[in-house]
Write a structure and sequence with these properties.
Layout (H helix, E strand, L loop, with lengths): L12 E5 L12 E8 L2 E6 L3 E5 H7 L13 E4 L3 E11 L16 E3 L5 E4 L3 H7 L7 E11 L2 H7 L3 E5 L2 H5 L6 H7 L16
Parallel strand pairs: 5-9
Antiparallel strand pairs: 1-2, 1-10, 2-3, 3-9, 4-5, 6-8, 6-9, 7-8
Length: 200
């Protein structure tokens, strides 16, 4: 029987696309991994803006936006799955304790060993619309998913680099700088990854 303890767990890691990865959804992308288990993996691309801002998204769902700080925040293209649905990565907001839920929202994935959650229910947007809700948010349409063993094979094929995630890149780094910033966590720069590097 295989030893499961040797299995990699990339929850709260960044996947950084290698230059050879030509799939349009993922070329030059940084994916934040929300969950990685033996059943598969789920993540959000954090560096591909859509043509919407958070204010536009709130207008589409008929909610006022009570947070001036989020008005011009770009909504990101989180991946090719369920691109019509919103996913909100945010600081964890505890429930009141009455409901028996760990999160204040109806449908939140609490990301292991981090202070972050990823919510898909509209109540997080309703909280933000009143001027409350989590302080730091990253909003995407769609997400990225891998079937059991699929991500591990792609990593073995050198499609991705992996590194422990950094909240400052998620919430504070300009979108167009996130790829280079994530690479710098590994001490790398994009030119070092050129497919032609090292061939005389």
């Amino acid at each position: 029987m295989a030893d499961d303890s040797a299995r990699i767990n990339l929850t709260h890691h960044f996947l950084i696309a290698m230059p050879g990865l030509s799939d349009e959804s993922f070329a030059r992308s940084v994916v934040y991994m929300c969950e990685h288990s033996d059943r598969g993996a789920l993540g959000l691309v954090i560096n591909k803006p859509s043509d919407l801002e958070v204010a536009d998204l709130f207008q589409k769902v008929d909610l006022p936006l009570g947070r001036e700080d989020l008005r011009h925040l770009p909504v990101l293209q989180g991946g090719p799955v369920h691109t019509e649905r919103g996913f909100v990565l945010h600081d964890k907001v505890e429930a009141d304790g009455e409901s028996g839920r760990e999160s204040a929202y109806a449908s939140t994935l609490n990301i292991q060993e981090t202070g972050l959650g990823m919510t898909t229910s509209k109540d997080v947007l309703e909280a933000i619309s009143t001027g409350a809700g989590p302080k730091r948010v990253l909003v995407t349409l769609g997400y990225s998913a891998w079937a059991q063993g699929q991500l591990e094979s792609e990593i073995a094929e050198n499609s991705w680099l992996t590194v422990q995630a950094d909240d400052a890149i998620l919430f504070d780094t300009p979108i167009d700088k996130r790829y280079d910033k994530a690479l710098s966590l590994l001490g790398l720069q994009a030119w070092m990854l050129s497919p032609d590097a090292g061939h005389a």
